[in-house]
Design goal:
The chain has 565 residues and is α/β, with parallel strands linked by helices. It is built from 18 helices and 26 strands.
Length: 565
């Protein structure tokens, strides 16, 4: 009798196990990940009960615990936690003594990858200053916009970026901006040298570190960043040196954007690409075909593709080995983080609403706009100095009167296996070469040319490339025509290369919606194929510094990869 019962129970468990494997194959993986998040959340709440813990606190704790451990490795330099702690103290004392900086002051930092970038940042943090990181690729007008947006009255600039700042120095002086160059001297009038002051300062710990609360501003971010323990820095990314550096510095974890991985798989083979110690690659934007080739070619590296935002507390991580998704949307995941995918109008990219004014959820297998509810624990504090743009990111009365959701502006797809896939970025932004491009900014820049009357900027896909490359539909002023060399010269002076429109579509008028918004959907769909449209198309030929007519032959060379973008 006991044997029969045992056999029946065993058969039942086996049947249940097989049913689970067939219908919910990721049940245990999802559950384990959920429990890890719960444990992490519990630990975080316990630590927060002890008071606010900042990035600076974490660094100082590490410096005290592991003073001689390498913190930054840069070219032939190796700086320990203690080295960086002492040098950041020197920067803090210099800023306080020579620059009269104090808690709450906003300081913009325009520096390339170098150890002193970290030391300047930490030094300013030790004074309680709010730091704004600026993109070193931006041009003069965009630089001024960043200053005005964050409200900075002090700029710290790297020695190799002085020329960029010189272009806007008169405007900065009109705004009473103090400019410090990270060098021992300054050959340009209007710049204060910094390093000569720093090296006279004490490296001892500051006795009066600022007190902060949960709502204190820490950083103004215009571009994405990264944090870690030991960090290996380079001035610029080098695909040919990547694996050699990984072997040289015994790197175990790398962070990527999808374009970076594509560069690596397109490089010639080197012995180091299989002799490294890298065990994990984490990032976003990795295309499935590149993903497969990356894992196949570079060894047993776990890929952890994710999705996240700086503006709101929503993010996903693909903690499985499934190729392609950015995360999971299982029952357990929704317990830890609330989000919705909304059905949208393909012409306006606005959420579709019922006759009652409520939004509709996207169906399984249908792309939808990712939105997240705003709560006490998930707030959206807005964009610095721009209440209008902040309000545009909110969707109100979504499922009931009074509810408010943050609109990410991204299209995601939830499939029948509960995987989430990134499909596209909508609205006035597209991504190219790992950078976000504002169509509004590019349109404004092009609009300054005397031969352009109207312009509509958008991104189009190119086979073999991540993201979307810039394209512009242009209407000329009466009795004017395209001046390619002038346009190229204007782009070089005003925009980083990743924001340039590589393709032009010449039109007699621009299509608009019923509410007079520029119509992009049809333009994006038709792309730059000369066989689809009768409008003249042009392509940016860097070698000629001019836009040339985009023929079928040129088009074929681009899509085949013969012509590189």
């Amino acid at each position: 009798m006991i044997t029969l019962v045992f056999t029946s129970l065993l058969a039942g468990f086996l049947a249940l196990f097989l049913y689970q494997r067939m219908t919910y194959p990721f049940f245990w993986v999802d559950l384990i990940y959920y429990l890890k998040l719960r444990r992490y959340g519990k630990t975080l709440r316990a630590r927060m009960q002890q008071g606010i813990i900042t990035y600076l606190d974490c660094f100082l704790q590490q410096a005290k615990k592991n003073p001689n451990k390498p913190f930054i490795i840069f070219e032939n330099q190796s700086l320990t936690y203690q080295d960086v702690d002492r040098r950041s103290n020197q920067f803090a004392n210099a800023f306080r003594t020579e620059g009269s900086l104090k808690q709450g002051d906003i300081v913009a930092v325009l520096m390339c990858n170098e150890p002193d970038f970290i030391c300047v940042w930490l030094g300013l943090c030790k004074l309680g200053c709010e730091v704004a990181f600026l993109n070193v690729n931006i041009k003069a007008k965009s630089l001024l916009h960043c200053f005005h947006s964050c409200g900075a009255k002090t700029l710290v600039v790297g020695a190799d970026l002085v020329r960029l700042v010189e272009e806007v120095l008169p405007d900065l002086k009109n705004d009473n901006m103090a400019v410090w160059v990270v060098d021992h001297s300054s050959s340009s009038e209007g710049f204060n040298s910094l390093l000569d002051k720093v090296e006279r300062m004490s490296g001892e710990n500051l006795s009066d570190l600022p007190k902060v609360d949960i709502m204190s501003n820490f950083l103004f971010i215009f571009t994405s960043g990264t944090t870690g323990a030991t960090c290996v820095l380079k001035k610029k990314f080098s695909a040919s040196q990547f694996w050699k550096d990984c072997v040289k510095y015994n790197v175990t974890v790398v962070q990527y954007i999808g374009e970076l991985c594509r560069y690596l798989v397109n490089q010639p083979m080197v012995p180091e690409e299989r002799a490294h110690s890298v065990r994990l690659a984490a990032g976003s934007g990795l295309r499935s075909d590149v993903w497969k080739e990356f894992v196949k070619r570079f060894g047993r590296i776990k890929i952890r593709e994710g999705y996240g935002l700086t503006e709101a507390s929503i993010g996903f991580l693909n903690y499985t080995d499934e190729v392609g998704p950015i995360g999971r949307a299982s029952y357990f995941n929704k317990l830890s983080m609330s989000f919705e995918l909304l059905r949208y109008d393909t012409q306006t990219y606005e959420p579709v609403r019922t006759d009652c004014g409520r939004c509709l959820r996207a169906q399984i297998g249908e792309p939808g706009i990712l939105v997240a509810p705003l709560t006490a624990m998930n707030q959206f504090l807005g964009y610095a100095g721009n209440k209008v743009q902040s309000e545009k990111k909110l969707v109100r009365d979504v499922f009931k009167v009074g509810d408010v959701y943050f609109n990410t502006g991204d299209l995601l797809l939830h499939d029948h296996r509960d995987f989430l896939y990134f499909r596209d970025r909508i609205g006035d932004t597209f991504r190219w070469k790992g950078e976000n491009v504002s169509t509004t900014e590019v349109s404004e820049v092009l609009g300054h040319l005397d031969f352009i009357q109207e312009v509509n900027v958008y991104g189009v896909t190119v086979p073999g490339y991540e993201g979307r490359v810039g394209m512009a539909a242009i209407v000329f002023k009466q009795d004017h025509k395209l001046n390619g060399p002038k346009l190229y010269s204007h782009l070089v002076k005003t925009l980083p290369a990743y924001a340039w429109p590589w393709f032009l579509r010449i039109q007699t008028s621009l299509d608009v919606t019923e509410t007079f918004k520029q119509q992009k959907v049809k333009l994006v769909h038709q792309g730059f194929n000369p066989e689809i449209t009768q409008d003249p198309l042009y392509f940016l030929d860097i070698s000629q510094k001019d836009y040339i007519l985009l023929t079928v032959s040129v088009y074929q060379d681009i899509v085949s990869g013969k012509i590189k973008l």
